[in-house]
Design brief:
Chain lengths: 315, 288
């Protein structure tokens, strides 16, 4: 079983990592839309002011501008609140970037409920769904700051469009520092037998705590962390279905179109099995703190524990 | 029934403009306290917009606080939706919502989210937050009113950083194309956004010329001078055939010494000492 380690801040990780990457690769450039404060890219600006472009509050412009940079051989890392780089700039992502197959890395900051008090208009409930449905985009929701760094490094090294969630705040780490990220590979965190638990992003921390608590009650979970929403690790999903009685997915996102949907698709086509999806159930977020909402919407440790107890009682 | 803000008549009487200014002082203090008690928030752009909202709600706009859904009322769109707190303070002062609710600002499970929400708050015509969309909505409202021959005005308050969004300029074309002379846009020209001053992040100047080129009547005023704002709105109402924009030159964080003109105070949290300092600053201004 994985344990939770030191707390690390997402923004600090972003600033440090892209600055290091830019030092190694002169083609890397940064594009911002008046939210450097939210991405944490200030160190990059300090070190490479001429390679930082801030287009103002203009997310659509930011993404198409990045496409132009990429067309000339640059590797842009463009950021914006996840809601705006996914929803507002959706067409620009799809056509300027994906359709043209440009090497742009889009970072959606304050992803999902981590937008907290910015409230319903700013909580990206569907950014994973939007990007998952765009041909050519790879889509990642990192579980902790170490993994976020590994994904950024991978994104800098691979060709083609990538969407990465940046989850605002400080969270405990559970992956090791310096690990190489493998797209399309799930991470097995606990090898229990009864119930399969598949989590992504910040819900994995909740899942780790939930499986610890349930283990004490004699309910063993096969817990898989799935930072790679696309490509998705089909083998890990099917194997989990084979080894357990039922699968529960948890995501900081609507249950439509994200992790839960992706798992459902894999199961239906390959190994039909029972599935319960935890996430936002067709409603918007609200102005509140992260843990308040995670609890209310049923994606925190307590919600996972009680849902699984309920399921086990019915099995 | 009053058709202006509930306090408008009284304010409008003997003391005239001074009363608007006095009201703005009260609202600024209440806004500062409300954001502080919420645990922080968008101080900068809330405090810059106080006089603008005061003149709208206590003088210019035709409203019935007791009948908030009155069809003939003027409409107000807070395009820069993060400046909800001063608007809530006004709505509470005018009786659209109860004052107790101000304590719920940004609280878990609360009914007053910083980004204004029409489904939760009586008196809000449009839920906003994502910048750049409000002016288009205002154009739609003004067009519908025109179609129905309603004699009402639509006011849209935008941030200057917000003007970076391309959609604003799409709406700017629509407004002049359809000659929406009952549309009055106000730009809170506090010259700062999140990552810096507007001119360093994305230069807006020459701003008046841009609006003129898009076919608008343009006035530029001191956005903390209630008298100037009031007369600019009157001028805008008298003009026919074109949409109107008032560029209100303001100070971000107005009234709080350590916040004024500091883009870093776009949003944030303050200590208790800073809160006391702020109150002192506001006190001084009232006396002065
Ligand atoms: C589409 C969109 N992008 C980004 C944001 C995040 N954001 C909130 S306020 C703000 C700066 C606004 O600056 P300005 O319009 O000048 O407002 P003011 O200074 O009056 O507060 C930004 C970028 C947003 N709300 N909407």
């Amino acid at each position: 079983m994985r344990t939770l380690g030191e707390q690390k801040d997402t923004n600090a990780t972003y600033g440090r990592t892209i600055t290091e990457l830019a030092a190694e690769n002169p083609q890397i450039v940064a594009v911002e839309a008046d939210l450097m404060k939210a991405s944490g890219s200030a160190p990059f600006k300090e070190k490479f002011p001429e390679r930082m472009f801030n287009v103002g509050i203009a997310e659509q412009d930011a993404l198409s501008f990045s496409a132009g940079l990429a067309a000339m051989g640059k590797i842009p890392f463009v950021t914006g609140f996840a809601c705006f780089v996914a929803q507002r700039a959706c067409d620009q992502a799809q056509n300027s970037i994906a359709y043209n197959d440009f090497n742009v890395k889009v970072i959606g900051t304050y992803a999902g409920l981590t937008s907290e008090k910015n409230g319903g208009t700013h909580i990206s409930i569907d950014d994973l769904a939007i990007y998952r449905n765009m041909p050519r985009f790879q889509v990642f929701d990192p579980g902790d700051a170490n993994e976020f760094e590994a994904i950024l490094r991978y994104a800098a090294s691979c060709e083609g469009p990538v969407y990465i969630r940046s989850n605002k705040g400080k969270f405990p780490t559970f992956t090791s520092e310096g690990r190489t990220f493998q797209p399309g590979k799930a991470v097995l965190l606990n090898e229990g037998k009864e119930i399969g638990l598949i989590t992504t992003g910040i819900t994995t921390i909740e899942g780790i705590q939930a499986s610890e608590e349930l283990e004490k009650e004699g309910i063993s979970l096969r817990h898989i962390h799935m930072p790679s929403i696309k490509p998705i690790d089909m083998d890990a999903i099917v194997e989990t279905a084979k080894k357990t009685k039922l699968i529960v997915t948890v995501e900081n996102h609507t249950i439509y179109g994200g992790l839960g949907s992706a798992v459902a698709e894999v199961l239906c086509e390959n190994y039909p099995a029972r599935l319960v999806r935890l996430g936002l159930q067709d409603h918007f977020g609200e102005t509140a703190q992260l843990h308040y909402m995670m609890h209310k919407y049923g994606i925190d440790k307590d919600a996972i524990v009680s849902k699984i107890r309920e399921i086990v009682a019915e099995l | 029934m009053s058709e202006k803000g509930s306090l408008a008549r009284q304010l409008y009487n003997e003391e005239g403009e001074n009363m608007l200014e006095k009201k703005a002082g009260e609202l600024r203090r209440k806004t500062f306290e409300t954001i502080y008690h919420a645990g922080g928030g968008h101080y900068g752009g809330s405090l810059s917009a106080i006089e603008i909202m005061t003149v709208l709600y206590y003088d210019a706009m035709k409203l019935r606080p007791q009948e908030p859904e009155w069809e003939e009322r003027d409409r107000f769109i807070l395009c820069k939706g993060h400046a909800g707190p001063p608007l809530y303070v006004i709505l509470a002062d005018q009786g659209f919502i109860s004052s107790d609710r101000l304590e719920e600002l940004d609280k878990n499970g609360g009914s007053l989210p910083k980004h204004v929400d029409r489904l939760k708050v009586q008196g809000i015509d449009y839920s906003s937050g994502p910048l750049g969309q409000g002016l288009s909505v205002a154009c739609g409202m003004a067009s519908a009113a025109k179609l129905d021959k309603k004699d009402l005005y639509v006011y849209a308050l935008m941030g200057d950083g917000e003007l970076d969004e391309g959609q604003v300029w799409e709406a700017a074309m629509t407004a002049s194309h359809y000659q929406l002379d009952h549309l009055i846009a106000i730009v809170d020209r506090n010259r700062n956004q999140i990552d810096g001053s507007t001119e360093t992040v994305m230069a807006l100047e020459p701003l008046e010329e841009k609006w003129k080129a898009f076919g608008w009547n343009v006035q530029a005023v001191d956005g903390h001078d209630t008298k100037a704002l009031k007369s600019a709105i009157e001028t805008a109402k008298a003009a026919k055939g074109k949409p109107n924009v008032i560029i209100a030159n303001t100070i971000k964080g107005k009234g709080i010494s350590f916040m004024e003109n500091q883009y870093t105070w776009h949003s944030g949290q303050i200590t208790q000492e800073q809160f006391q300092q702020g109150l002192k600053d506001l006190e001084g201004r009232c006396k002065g």
